[in-house]
Specification:
301 residues; binds heme C; three-stranded antiparallel β-sheet; 23% helix; 10 helices; 7 strands; two-stranded antiparallel ribbon; single chain; 11% strand
């Protein structure tokens, strides 16, 4: 079932400029549970951690819902009524990166993950040890195309990114980890040809993070070659940036009813947000104009 296809017309005009982020939360029983990868709750603040004064703790000094969320009575609200885009959704927000919120309590120095994607030095050289964080042995970028099943990665590509990124780094990352049907596979091959890129599936034929993203910065692999061709209109330091889209509220209102109906049909709940991508990096094709999405999806025009 594809939300975009089933209601292509109203969505499509916006889709080519803007992205749809879709998040599915499986419902369990009557009472809504926290999402599977949610932060621990009702824990004491350990010695050495300082929680900002504006982050209220419970009477017994524990981290509770209101410590992190500035949304009144969030524990009572059904998830689809929680406005994730409210500035105070993460207390003290909005934050440009989720990690900036984490560092309000966790020590940034101790907590910062290395940006493993910054592989090249100023001369364009690299340290093979950095490659071997993911590869068993640093592959030679000059070699002809290496097939996915020939690459010896330390973890299956489907798991490679999880130590450092959330399973849902953005909202539809997880529900894309499926096997495309025959028709879509053909479209993918055509898009690879047309754009001179690779959109690799894992050895089991599934979409993974690296189908859409390249883990390497531009220049590790010759940008003239399909595996090296990528979008990079910003540097890694700055990362992908967004601008809030003024139509966001309208868009969600418009979709609310249809989403509620869908939730009933499939027993899954959806939340949509609408953001405009400004800068892109580590993507194989641009998403802000819809090119990436159209490599797999066919939208009615
Ligand atoms: C230590 C901070 C912290 C505490 C305490 C906390 N949360 Fe969260 N919560 C988060 C973060 C961070 C996210 C967003 C995760 C993401 O975007 O991947 C989140 C997301 C959510 C969401 C949105 C889920 C979704 O995916 O739409 C809800 C609802 C929520 N929290 C409810 C609660 C409730 C209810 C409590 C108390 C029982 C609570 N949270 C306690 C940090 C916290
Ligand atoms: C309001 C303060 C606060 C914020 C904000 C916060 N944390 Fe925590 N976090 C805690 C406390 C307190 C603990 C429990 C004590 C500990 O294990 O250090 C904890 C524990 C953790 C743990 C260990 C959990 C476990 O199961 O042992 C992880 C991982 C973590 N936080 C990640 C994050 C991430 C990622 C963010 C940002 C999305 C975040 N935290 C934001 C206070 C916070
Ligand atoms: C964060 C993990 C990660 C790091 C670090 C990494 N790679 Fe990769 N690499 C991958 C994954 C995943 C693939 C398979 C997907 C692809 O082809 O892009 C891959 C594929 C490749 C390929 C094959 C491309 C093709 O399809 O022909 C080459 C060559 C390569 N990497 C070279 C390097 C070099 C050189 C470095 C160090 C400068 C490096 N990689 C660092 C994850 C990584
Ligand atoms: C279907 C294509 C696709 C898949 C699969 C995908 N991504 Fe993304 N990713 C995107 C696009 C497009 C963006 C930029 C816009 C957005 O957030 O939707 C992005 C953005 C990101 C960002 C930056 C988010 C931010 O807010 O700064 C990270 C990190 C990321 N992806 C990691 C991952 C990881 C890890 C996986 C696998 C679990 C993954 N992506 C799977 C297309 C994809
Ligand atoms: C060793 C940790 C590590 C691993 C492994 C890793 N990343 Fe990252 N990645 C980072 C850090 C750190 C950043 C910088 C932004 C941040 O702090 O979230 C980043 C940034 C990104 C971004 C750009 C987002 C932005 O806005 O800067 C994308 C896309 C991304 N990673 C995708 C992937 C994919 C796909 C994989 C798996 C092949 C992967 N990463 C594996 C640490 C890692
Ligand atoms: C590599 C192929 C591929 C790319 C690229 C891709 N998708 Fe998908 N998408 C899929 C597959 C496979 C599914 C699941 C089957 C279906 O619904 O057709 C899916 C499902 C979806 C769904 C429905 C999710 C659900 O749970 O029903 C949405 C919405 C979506 N994609 C939007 C996008 C957007 C927006 C982009 C561009 C940022 C994009 N897709 C890029 C392959 C892709």
């Amino acid at each position: 079932m594809s939300i975009v296809r089933s209601n292509a017309k109203p969505v499509v005009a916006g889709l080519l400029m803007v992205l749809v982020n879709l998040f599915a939360i499986a419902e369990e029983g009557e009472r809504e549970k926290l999402p599977p990868l949610h932060h621990v709750v009702d824990v004491a603040v350990p010695d050495g951690m300082s929680v900002p004064e504006a982050f209220p703790l419970s009477a017994d000094g524990h981290i509770v819902c209101k410590t992190c969320h500035g949304i009144e009575g969030i524990e009572e609200l059904p998830f689809d009524e929680v406005d994730r885009d409210a500035p105070e959704f993460h207390r003290g927000g909005p934050y440009r990166r989720l990690t900036d919120f984490c560092y309000r309590c966790h020590d940034e120095q101790a907590y910062r993950r290395p940006n493993i994607h910054e592989l090249l030095d100023e001369q364009g050289g690299y340290d093979e040890k950095a490659c071997e964080y993911c590869h068993r042995k640093a592959p030679d970028p000059k070699q002809e195309r290496i097939r996915p099943d020939e690459l010896e990665l330390r973890l299956p590509s489907r798991k490679l990114c999880y130590g450092c990124h959330l399973k849902t780094p953005h909202l539809n990352a997880l529900n894309h980890q499926v096997e495309p049907d025959e028709e879509m596979r053909k479209r993918i091959e055509q898009a690879e040809q047309a754009h001179g890129v690779i959109l690799p599936l894992d050895p089991d034929g599934r979409i993974t993070c690296v189908t859409c993203h390249t883990p390497h910065p531009r220049g590790v692999i010759d940008p003239e070659r399909p595996a090296g061709k990528q979008v990079a209109d910003t540097d890694l330091e700055e990362g992908i940036t967004y601008r809030e889209h003024p139509w966001d509220a309208v868009f969600r209102e418009d979709k609310r009813e249809r989403l509620a109906r869908m939730a009933e049909e499939v027993g899954t709940r959806y939340t949509l947000t609408y953001r405009r991508l400004v800068k892109e990096v580590l993507l194989r094709l641009p998403a802000k104009d819809g090119t990436l999405c159209l490599a797999c999806h066919e939208f009615e025009r």
